[in-house]
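step=encode ok
step=design start
structure_in=
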């Protein structure tokens, strides 16, 4: 069961990374891409749960602080919400490694599915937007 869960988490991470890379490739707007130095979250039992939660928060905070802003409220909201939603996904992945409580597991799986779906919706919205010059 644990091996299947770890394989599922790895597949979810790879799918999200591919979707993110595809969004950035197709968008073509350099301001909409995250810096290559942005930290990444790794869900692993090699760390205690509290450390994973700290990591998830640090990655989310860094992503939100590095979000490309252009002065358009809708754009800026979306670029900051994507790492925020990814933070929820990362936290849910962490709890899945450490809980056997069926209610919490179902909640975490639902969070992963819904937040990843909302990230895709936000990425699609960004792709539909014409490039806009950054405001000073």
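sequence_out=
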């Amino acid at each position: 069961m644990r091996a299947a869960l770890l394989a599922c988490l790895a597949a979810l991470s790879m799918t999200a990374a591919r979707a993110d890379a595809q969004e950035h490739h197709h968008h073509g707007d350099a301001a909409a891409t995250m810096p290559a130095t942005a930290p990444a979250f790794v869900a692993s039992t090699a760390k205690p749960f509290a450390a994973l939660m700290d990591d998830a928060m640090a990655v989310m905070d860094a992503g939100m602080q590095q979000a490309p802003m252009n002065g358009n409220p809708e754009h800026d909201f979306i670029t900051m919400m994507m790492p925020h939603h990814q933070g929820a996904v990362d936290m849910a992945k962490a709890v899945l490694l450490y809980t056997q409580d069926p209610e919490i597991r179902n909640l975490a799986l639902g969070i992963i599915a819904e937040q990843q779906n909302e990230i895709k919706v936000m990425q699609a919205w960004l792709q539909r937007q014409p490039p806009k010059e950054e405001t000073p």
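step=design ok
step=annotate ok -> The chain has one domain: 2-17+48-128.
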